[in-house]
């Protein structure tokens, strides 16, 4: 019998395990991870000259107070605030005039602040209707319709981080949270360095981590005060295990899909929150080259769409090209020297581009062959990005994420509240509900399963901050409940 079984070895699960073991070194803690790797939605690709994070990449709010920074400091993991270099906006193969680009960015920030501070009582009013309204600060001092078109296209880049389209987001609760604000820092060696350190420390403290072990059928143990039993399914073999408490960090999308095979009983309030909070989508494509053919002093290129909204139907080869030019693409270059030498000795640059694949097109793109998508993206970027007087050679290698179809992610993260969610009665307090303990239908009503994960954080949902915060919260709760 374990004291605590934790389901999931992502940031929430590993933080919870560490928190319990730091409180009580003799606690019997087991972490079950269904996949054969640690990290969940933290995944660092080592297929390139340097590490590339294809899941989470930034520690948000690094200088403004971050629980992730506290963790890196405690575990001696080095971070740096990168020099992102120059950035430029591109429309129709031309780099926009710097003054116009600055004006567009400032207008977007103002429009976003206005939307976040608007008290809209009407839950059916969308973020789009505020941001894109003719009176929106988005269009301040932009006279021509072509400039206004650029402003609208730039506003669509917000959909990358949100994982949902502007028309779907409810204005009524928009901007209440802290998520993704402040300074962004990166982890030297890739984000999974922190995951590995956490796992090492847990093992050193006596915790057990089992990979390739999926938990299901959680039920209150009969005749016992508070314990829970569950099935551990590993390589065609299932065994029953029990613990005094369970902490579930199973992602929301998986709870939505598999809740009846995971839990014997959950309260109606929890089920309502599970079913009605939205999970968004975001993908990443990474392409590497022998040599950089784009300006290496530029860290970020924002390529604005030339197609307004409709995608032309053409040959299959043109289909990808049409999809790319229908959305704004944010392209990060690793050819820029982003970390100071004392943090990351040279060479720390590599001729690699990372492209965020936004929600309108991600479901169609993820799951296709990485080399075909990489080749098509190369064709589009070779037309669009400025060139350093060289003819762009084709890519050497491409890696494409598949978060939308990954059976242990089924999407990116929980999103800002959508009109559909709010109409079903969801509010920011639903994130509290998602993190509330459950008794699994036992008559005594005592907590048996605790819930952590990014989707249980009211202020930092959708981020590593939210996952870590929830792991700290539920780790402490478990230690107190068990009087460890
Ligand atoms: C493309 C992308 C970019 C992102 N960028 C950023 C960023 O820059 N900054 C940021 O802060 N956040 C970012 N995020 C969000 C961040 O990655 C997540 O919020 C965070 O990693 C979630 O951690 P978690 O522990 O809640 O869930 P997960 O990391 O998903 O961990 C849950 C674990 O549970 C396991 N599991 C599921 N079911 C079972 C079961 N039945 N039995 C056993 N194990 C199970 C899963 O395999 C998984 O390992 C990004 C996410 C994506 C997809």
From TrEMBL:
Return one Gene Ontology term, BP aspect.
chromatin remodeling
Q: Does the keyword Ribosomal protein apply?
A: no
The record's listing under Gene3D superfamilies reads: 3.90.660.10, FAD/NAD(P)-binding domain (3.50.50.60)
| InterPro entries the record matches | Amino_oxidase (IPR002937), FAD/NAD-bd_sf (IPR036188), Flavin_monoamine_oxidase (IPR050281)
Keywords assigned by UniProt, alphabetized: Oxidoreductase
Any single GO molecular-function term of the entry would be: flavin adenine dinucleotide binding
In its keyword annotation, does this UniProt entry include Oxidoreductase?
yes
Transmembrane feature ranges: none
Which family does the similarity line name? Belongs to the flavin monoamine oxidase family.
Q: What name is this protein filed under?
A: Amine oxidase domain-containing protein
Q: Which organism is it from?
A: Naganishia liquefaciens
């Amino acid at each position: 019998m374990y004291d605590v079984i934790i389901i999931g070895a992502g940031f929430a699960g590993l933080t919870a395990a560490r928190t319990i073991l730091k409180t009580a070194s003799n606690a019997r803690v087991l972490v079950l991870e269904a996949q054969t790797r640690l990290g969940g939605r933290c995944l660092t690709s080592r297929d390139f000259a340097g590490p590339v994070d294809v899941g989470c990449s930034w520690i948000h709010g690094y200088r403004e107070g971050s629980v992730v920074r506290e963790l890196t400091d405690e575990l001696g993991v080095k971070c740096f605030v990168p020099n992102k270099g120059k950035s430029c906006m591109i429309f129709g193969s031309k780099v926009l005039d710097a003054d116009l680009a600055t004006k567009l960015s400032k207008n977007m920030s103002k429009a976003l602040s206005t939307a976040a501070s608007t008290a809209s009582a009407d839950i059916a009013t969308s973020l789009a209707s505020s941001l894109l309204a003719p009176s929106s600060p988005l269009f301040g001092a932009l006279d021509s319709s072509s400039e206004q078109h650029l402003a609208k296209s730039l506003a669509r880049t917000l959909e990358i981080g949100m994982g949902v389209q502007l028309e779907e987001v409810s204005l009524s609760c928009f901007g209440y949270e802290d998520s993704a604000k402040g300074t962004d820092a990166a982890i030297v060696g890739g984000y999974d360095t922190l995951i590995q350190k956490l796992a090492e420390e847990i093992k050193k403290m006596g915790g057990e981590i089992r990979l390739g072990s999926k938990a299901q059928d959680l039920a209150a143990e009969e005749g016992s005060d508070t314990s829970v039993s569950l099935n551990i399914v590993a390589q065609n073999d299932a065994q029953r295990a029990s613990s005094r408490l369970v902490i579930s960090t199973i992602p929301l999308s998986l709870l939505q899909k598999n809740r009846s095979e995971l839990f014997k009983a959950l309260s109606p309030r929890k089920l309502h929150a599970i079913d009605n909070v939205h999970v968004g989508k975001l993908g990443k494509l990474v392409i590497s080259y022998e040599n950089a053919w784009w300006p290496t002093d530029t860290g970020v290129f924002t390529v604005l769409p030339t197609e307004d909204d409709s995608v032309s139907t053409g040959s299959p080869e043109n289909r990808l090209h049409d999809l790319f030019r229908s959305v704004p693409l944010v392209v990060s270059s690793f050819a820029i020297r982003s970390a100071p030498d004392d943090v990351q000795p040279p060479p720390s640059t590599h001729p690699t581009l990372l492209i965020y694949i936004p929600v309108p097109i991600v479901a169609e793109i993820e799951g296709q062959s990485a080399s075909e998508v990489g080749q098509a993206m190369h064709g589009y970027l070779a037309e669009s990005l400025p060139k350093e007087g060289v003819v762009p050679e084709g890519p050497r290698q491409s890696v494409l994420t598949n978060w939308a179809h990954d059976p242990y992610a089924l999407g990116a993260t929980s999103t800002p509240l959508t009109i559909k969610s709010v109409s079903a009665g969801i509010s920011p307090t639903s994130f509290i509900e998602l993190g509330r303990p459950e008794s699994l239908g036992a008559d005594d009503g005592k907590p048996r399963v605790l819930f952590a994960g990014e989707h249980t954080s009211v202020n930092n949902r959708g981020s590593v901050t939210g996952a870590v915060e929830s792991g700290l919260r539920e780790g402490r709760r478990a230690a107190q409940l068990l009087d460890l």
